[in-house]
């Protein structure tokens, strides 16, 4: 228990006169392997020490009251009705998860809940996946459904895909649920096999610079990228091998031999995905032998691919990366997550972080008028009942 969990426990008790179960679920970073999860590739995320907290208990009625501390809102919910809640987008993440249990033929005991957390919202640190993971975990526990962590991860992803309409991959929920302190997760998104890698950064730290923007196109462009990748994969299946499981495994030679037949935009998207998957695998080798310099160089190369080939960056992200990547105390810098805003992830020598942040803040404010936020994060455990 910490200050936040104590606070919502008390709020829950004051509101509903009963003690809740408290579930904590982490936000995530992804070191490398961006936009490859939905292409069956490898990713390297970690759960971080910023979390969503859910206080929850059965309501003993057909309805439940859900409260968001951060949005200062509450909503009364009739269980079994699954309609959009346009005034309460935060509650849709909960409802979408409840719906998935119903879709599996599992009737959920109606519940009251209170939600809060310290994951910056809209910064690309997966506050929504953390909430969905916490809700899935809590419902599974409260109802004794006995679902595994992997099943709950898939359920949370389907909630986001189907109720929220965002065709996200599985990385965010997977990291949120399976995270482990001092480790990153090397996840094969095709098979969902995973391995924990110790994260020894020595004198370096994971630093996130928050652009403070989230451009509107984020969800629509994300879905467009998925379609473009599907178009590429269909082409390779038709012309090379119908059994190739996913785009990440397409050999670069097939792509190069197809330049004149593929739409140039689709070509670029495929090039990025194939290269990123290979880069990610070789970055893991760097990490294994403690070669942080080469690891960092690959992070920055990922940014170039996301900017030029995959085209999911934006001027604010590019500005932050361009301003720091060449500094000697910076191992690597890149945009992180879906793109079009959110944070950059940087590996920076601990003793220069404050100075670098001070300099960068001035430049960023001059350029964009926005106050730059910085989060120095460490890895943490995944979803847990406190
Ligand atoms: C978002 C999605 F939710 C993830 O599934 C992943 O595709 C990521 O963008 C890009 O790597 O966070």
TrEMBL record:
Q: Molecular function (GO) terms listed?
A: ATP binding; galactokinase activity; metal ion binding
Q: Which GO terms describe its cellular component?
A: cytosol
Protein species of origin: Arcicella aurantiaca
GO BP term (any one): galactose metabolic process
- Entries under SUPFAM superfamilies matching the protein: GHMP Kinase, C-terminal domain, Ribosomal protein S5 domain 2-like
Name all GHMP kinase C-terminal domain ranges. Answer: 285-364
**The keyword Metal-binding is annotated on this UniProt entry:** yes
Q: What is its EC number?
A: 2.7.1.6
The GHMP kinase N-terminal domain covers 93-180
Q: Which PROSITE patterns does the protein's record reference?
A: GALACTOKINASE (PS00106), GHMP_KINASES_ATP (PS00627)
**Keyword check for Nucleotide-binding:** yes
One Pfam family in the UniProt entry: GalKase_gal_bdg
The family line of this record is: Belongs to the GHMP kinase family. GalK subfamily.
Q: Where is the Galactokinase N-terminal domain?
A: 11-58
* Name this polypeptide is given: Galactokinase
What InterPro entries does the database record attribute to this sequence? Answer: Galactokinase, Galactokinase_CS, GalKase_N, GHMP_kinase_C_dom, GHMP_kinase_C_sf, GHMP_kinase_N_dom, GHMP_knse_ATP-bd_CS, Mevalonate/galactokinase
The superkingdom of the source organism is Bacteria
Which controlled-vocabulary keywords does the entry list?
ATP-binding, Carbohydrate metabolism, Cytoplasm, Galactose metabolism, Kinase, Magnesium, Metal-binding, Nucleotide-binding, Transferase
